[in-house]
Amino acid sequence: xxxxxxxxxxxxxxxRKRLKGGMLHGWFGDHLFNSHLWxxxxxxxxxxMLLGSLSALSPFFGFHLLIGCSLAMIFRANIPVTAAxxxxxxxxxxxxxxxxxxxxxxxxxxxxxxxxxxxxxxxxSQDLGAIWNMAGDVxxxxxxxxxxxGVAFGACCxxxxxxxxxxxxxxxxxxxxxxxxxxxx
Length: 185
Prior knowledge:
This protein has 185 residues and is mainly alpha-helical. It has helices at residues 2-11, 16-19, 23-28, 42-56, 64-75, 79-85, 91-109, 116-125, 128-164.
């Protein structure tokens, strides 16, 4: 499976030869070519599920891919899995997810949730000071709600990968010469 992924990436122009000397190579150095970042290994995929979910469910819409791949580079998680998880939140799901995360964050903080009519009224007033204050009132409950959702979903995905992906059996000693041993009386 990992070889198929590597071939697919190579066909799309994401090979070592093409990346070497480029902008990403300049930023990340030879760490970009670490094999643990690209292979489908149990621990790397599990960590990618955790970090990818955390970044995908963050309130920074539009920067998810940058945040997720940066976290994957730092913590040596699988980059393709992390990048694929960024499509959890898209324009179709955000309209339901962000209000739910805001309500969760407001509930955790014990603050009353902002009513929709107050939100609309503030936007219609076109008073930049009022809009800035409203953004500050919304940001922290939204940030907390998104973080809680991201950690919970990521932890569930991480645990599922570790439970469902069989662990590699411990390596056995080399039995290549087992039959050539001399028998002692």
